[in-house]
Amino acid sequence: MGFSLLGLLVSIVVLAPNLLLLWFPPRGPNVVVRVPRLLEGSERAGQALCLVVPAITLPGAIVWGWALPAAVALAAYYALWGRYLVAGRAQVLLYASLWRVPVPMAVMPVLVFLGAAAWVSNPWIAVAAVVLAIGHIPVALLTRRAIRSAPSE
After folding, report:
1. Which residue spans within 6-118 are E strands per DSSP?
2. Mind listing the pLDDT tens digit for each residue in 30-73?
């Protein structure tokens, strides 16, 4: 345990784009989905853990080979946020596929945290990322399904 500036930076660069939703909320219809409490709890716990754990756990040996996969996942995540902003801010864009990944805006943050965990040799960040994945990805898939089946206006 101890403060990690590197870990705090990882948390900030991954989670900060979500603040865009405060200033640029989705336009048009907004589908709200009821999800099982276990998934919702895991998603919220994972978000909190991914914010806090990297900052309060000291890194181990830096393994530079893992910096590139983490950076690529982060760049893809930022590009997806760009797509959302440029393409009209419809809710469906937050859950739209990229290549063969059905909910990349849920998958990419998990990949960034897993890559960061390997990069700084910190298994606790990996645990936080897995908790996030257990909740965030299924919730995103349920939301995507609900958006696709909602009647269009």
Report:
1. none
2. 888 899 999 999 999 999 999 999 999 998 999 999 999 999 99
CA atoms within 13 A of residue 108's CA, in its CB half-sphere: 27
State whether residue 96 is helix, strand or coil.
Answer: coil
* Domain boundaries defined on the chain: 5-149
Closest CA to 73 of 42, 120, 105, 118: 105
User: For residues 52 and 8, what is the distance between their CA atoms, to the nearest angstrom?
Assistant: 8
Say how far apart CA 103 and CA 41 lie, in whole Å.
19
Coil/strand/helix, residue 90:
strand
Q: Is the pTM of this model over 0.85?
A: yes
Question: 48: number of CA atoms within 13 Å, CB side?
Answer: 6
Assess whether pLDDT exceeds 90 at residue 121.
Answer: yes
Instruction: Return the biggest CA–CA distance within the chain.
Output: 54
pLDDT band at residue 80, thresholds of 50, 70 and 90? very high
Q: Which residues pair with 66 in a beta bridge?
A: none
